[in-house]
């Protein structure tokens, strides 16, 4: 019989680690990679590109959520409302510049 030897012998396979956990991110690197491939942005997508993009998206989201928390604290609310977030984001010059560049 050919095969790998006795069944059950050998080392157990290590638990799979996601690329997000390897990079120390919360955003899904695998999903970003899939969307980059399906979006026809380029013929090939390198291994580092989705990690970098996921890190940038996570950073921007964290900054906006921090601003939303400050806005909720300023408005004496327990939760972040969309209205307070829009008002405070629109007053920040760096976010308005970013929005103008995207449009």
Automatic annotation (TrEMBL):
PANTHER family: HISTONE H2A. Core component of nucleosome. Nucleosomes wrap and compact DNA into chromatin, limiting DNA accessibility to the cellular machineries which require DNA as a template. Histones thereby play a central role in transcription regulation, DNA repair, DNA replication and chromosomal stability. DNA accessibility is regulated via a complex set of post-translational modifications of histones, also called histone code, and nucleosome remodeling. It comes from Sander lucioperca. It holds the Pfam family Histone. GO terms for cellular component: nucleosome; nucleus. Keywords: Acetylation, Chromosome, DNA-binding, Isopeptide bond, Nucleosome core, Nucleus, Phosphoprotein, Ubl conjugation. This is Histone H2A. Belongs to the histone H2A family. It is found in: Chromosome; Nucleus. Residues 1-22 are annotated as: Disordered. The nucleosome is a histone octamer containing two molecules each of H2A, H2B, H3 and H4 assembled in one H3-H4 heterotetramer and two H2A-H2B heterodimers. The octamer wraps approximately 147 bp of DNA. Residues 10-72 form the Core Histone H2A/H2B/H3 domain. One of its GO terms (molecular function) is structural constituent of chromatin. It comes from the Eukaryota. InterPro entries: H2A/H2B/H3, Histone-fold, Histone_H2A, Histone_H2A_CS.
